[in-house]
């Protein structure tokens, strides 16, 4: 069955959202199936768009991680563009002074670490403070809606890679997540089922998320940002390629011996052009997912961390950011004490069970 996104449905039926001046939180992933930008399609449908608001990486996606493009005028629509990145509270509220209704249309990748959902959350909170309707134009979760992995974020470890207690791989669409996190209206998907996976057409949602395979491994290998290994930023295979100057020929055989489902490991050498170890030749491992249904990204990453900890005790190191990425200090403490971090894996009983969401929402 053909999937129809919330943006496509709204472009065809402008009556799905409240009346008033519309502000659209979006970026280059906000497109219709024919790749027309949502902003252009909504304007053509006669919807009263008044402003655009961009997240991390910017409206056009030219900015690297931890940056945005700033403000200006969108050449496609002539609308003013405002930058939401790293803005909260009154500063964020003030951005929305020229609109009456906020729309959100950005492609997520199904992982708590990805900042677009926290841009949505922050803007959703701002809309609640301002008494303004908040509408999510829903899109598929490219990892599907059945599998959930990793612990819930714990209080005290909130950050822009996790504002609220959701799992690392959360199994929700952005619309479902918005309903879970606060007050929202959702222009829902049509033709998407929970056991679906992938997104067509695939628009790389950020500079270091080039392929669907990157998104699939990211719930696990994103944790390597909290270590002194390169997570492959600055290569053509970020998050699929992991390495450091001290990794030798013992790692790949050790990982193969673990017989992890759905994935193969290959020794590789690479030289990042930016980020960790830029310009240095590194040795490491590339993950090759051969069965996406069997593959467990979080379990796989925890086994990799355990092996690195065991093989390179004098070189392997953890960074302070690991606690925020994991959502608590339990992973760091397990590695520091030599315990098996795989034992930390639990499926939150109050999240998704047997492919059924354990909450009720009122999508449109």
State mean pLDDT (0 to 100 scale).
Answer: 92
* Helix/strand order: HEHEEEHEHEHEHEHEEHHHEE
Give the N-terminus to C-terminus distance in angstroms. 19 Å
Main sheet: strands, sense, barrel: 7 strands, mixed
Category by helix and strand content: alpha/beta
Q: How would you describe the shape?
A: elongated
- Biggest sheet: strands side by side, in what order? 3-4-2-1-5-6-7
Strand tally is 12
**Count of helix runs:** 10
Residue runs with pLDDT of under 50 for 5 or more positions: 359-364
Helix % is 10-25%
Gist of the model:
This protein has about 375 residues and is α/β, with parallel strands linked by helices. About 25% of the residues lie in helices and about 15% in strands.
Describe this structure in words.
The protein has helices spanning 6-12, 38-44, 89-95, 116-130, 174-181, 212-221, 251-257, 297-311, 322-326, 330-337, and strands at 22-26, 49-54, 72-73, 80-83, 101-105, 134-137, 185-187, 241-244, 263-270, 282-289, 352-353, 356-357. The protein contains ten helices and twelve strands. The protein is an alpha/beta fold and 364 residues long. α3 (89-95) packs across α4 and α4 packs across α5 (174-181). The two termini are 19 Å apart. The strands form three sheets. The protein has a seven-stranded mixed β-sheet with strand order 3-4-2-1-5-6-7, with helices on both faces.
How do the strands and helices of this protein lay out in sequence?
Layout (H helix, E strand, L loop, with lengths): L5 H7 L9 E5 L11 H7 L4 E6 L17 E2 L6 E4 L5 H7 L5 E5 L10 H15 L3 E4 L36 H8 L3 E3 L24 H10 L19 E4 L6 H7 L5 E8 L11 E8 L7 H15 L10 H5 L3 H8 L14 E2 L2 E2 L7
Parallel strand pairs: 1-2, 1-5, 2-4, 5-6, 6-7
Antiparallel strand pairs: 3-4, 8-10, 9-10, 11-12
């Amino acid at each position: 069955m053909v999937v129809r996104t919330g943006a496509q449905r709204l472009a065809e039926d402008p009556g799905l959202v409240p009346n008033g001046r519309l502000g659209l939180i979006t970026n280059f992933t906000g497109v219709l199936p024919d790749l027309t930008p949502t902003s252009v399609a909504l304007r053509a449908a006669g919807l009263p768009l008044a402003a655009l608001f961009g997240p991390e990486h910017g409206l056009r996606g030219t900015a690297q991680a931890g940056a945005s493009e700033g403000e200006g005028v969108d050449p496609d629509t002539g609308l003013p563009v405002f930058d939401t990145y790293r803005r909260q509270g009154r500063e964020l509220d003030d951005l929305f002074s020229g609109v009456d209704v906020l729309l959100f249309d950005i492609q997520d990748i199904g992982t708590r670490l990805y900042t677009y959902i926290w841009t949505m959350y922050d803007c959703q909170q701002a809309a609640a403070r301002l008494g303004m309707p908040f509408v999510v134009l829903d899109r598929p979760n490219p990892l599907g809606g059945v599998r959930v992995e990793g612990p819930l974020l714990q209080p005290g470890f909130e950050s822009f890679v996790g504002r609220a207690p959701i799992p690392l791989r959360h199994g929700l669409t952005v619309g479902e997540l918005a309903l879970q996190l606060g007050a929202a209206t959702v222009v829902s998907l049509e033709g998407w089922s929970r056991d679906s996976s992938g997104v067509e057409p695939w628009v790389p949602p950020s500079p270091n998320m080039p392929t669907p395979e990157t998104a699939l491994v990211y719930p696990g290998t994103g944790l390597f940002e909290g270590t002194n290994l390169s997570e492959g930023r600055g290569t053509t295979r970020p998050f699929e390629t992991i390495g450091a100057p001290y990794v030798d020929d013992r790692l790949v055989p050790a990982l193969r011996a673990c017989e992890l489902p759905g994935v193969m490991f290959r020794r590789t050498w690479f030289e990042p052009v930016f980020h960790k170890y830029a310009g240095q030749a590194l040795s490491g491992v590339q993950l090759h997912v051969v069965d996406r249904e069997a593959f467990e990204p979080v379990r796989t990453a925890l086994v990799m961390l355990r092996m690195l900890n065991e093989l390179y005790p004098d070189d392997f190191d953890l960074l302070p950011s690991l606690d925020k990425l994991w959502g608590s200090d339990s992973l760091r403490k397990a590695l520091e004490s030599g315990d098996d971090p795989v034992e930390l894996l639990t499926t939150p009983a109050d999240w998704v069970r047997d492919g059924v969401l354990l909450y009720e929402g009122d999508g449109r």
